[in-house]
Design a protein that fits this description.
Elements lengths: L6 H17 L21 E9 L2 E12 L2 E5 L21 E8 L13 E3 L4 E10 L2 E8 L6 E2 L5 E7 L1
Antiparallel strand pairs: 1-2, 2-9, 3-4, 4-7, 5-6, 6-7, 8-9
């Protein structure tokens, strides 16, 4: 059985709702509490060098400050390197590709004027800048085949070192 509000009943209901709102008894849903994000120190690239020795080839990326956020991993089989932002394919020598991502990259202060494509040596065929986009910088290391690599930076460091 439904009950229809009379004109007076509706007025009383509206007045009650207004009074409750005025008293703060009815509130809009609270906004989700912001999750605190750990601060990172913005970094910019200073130089990239390769250093071959009897145990392999090292690739060192030197930054302006300690790199606290990084990700170094092989691209999945069949996936090719792409330009950050556009997604355009990048031509790079090699049959497997190590992607090096440094987060908290300060693109507004980017003063790196070094090469964006470096020749490789030994197992490392080529090193190419994938781009700087949305606070991160990506480099690709093209290697002859998927093989073990080591992150020689060992935690937070101004110099990020990958040995293949």
């Amino acid at each position: 059985m439904s009950k229809v509000l009379s004109r007076n009943g509706f007025r009383r209901l509206a007045a009650t709702g207004a009074a409750l709102l005025a008293l703060g008894a009815v509130a809009a849903p609270a906004a989700a509490a912001a999750t605190p994000v750990a601060a990172c120190t913005p970094v910019v690239l200073k130089k990239v060098v390769t250093s071959p020795d009897s145990t392999g080839v090292g690739v060192a990326f030197t930054y302006s400050a300690t790199v606290t956020e990084k990700n170094i991993s092989y691209l999945p089989a069949g996936e090719k390197p792409t330009q950050d932002g556009s997604g355009d394919p990048i031509a790079i020598k090699g049959n497997a590709f190590i992607r090096v991502i440094v987060s908290c990259y300060n693109w507004t202060q980017d003063t790196y004027r070094g090469p964006k494509r470096l020749p490789g040596e030994g197992a490392v065929k080529e090193i190419v800048l994938g781009g700087t986009f949305e606070g991160q910088q990506t480099w690709y290391i093209g290697v002859d085949r998927k093989r073990a690599y080591d992150d020689l930076s060992r935690g937070a460091s101004v110099s990020l070192k990958v040995k293949v």
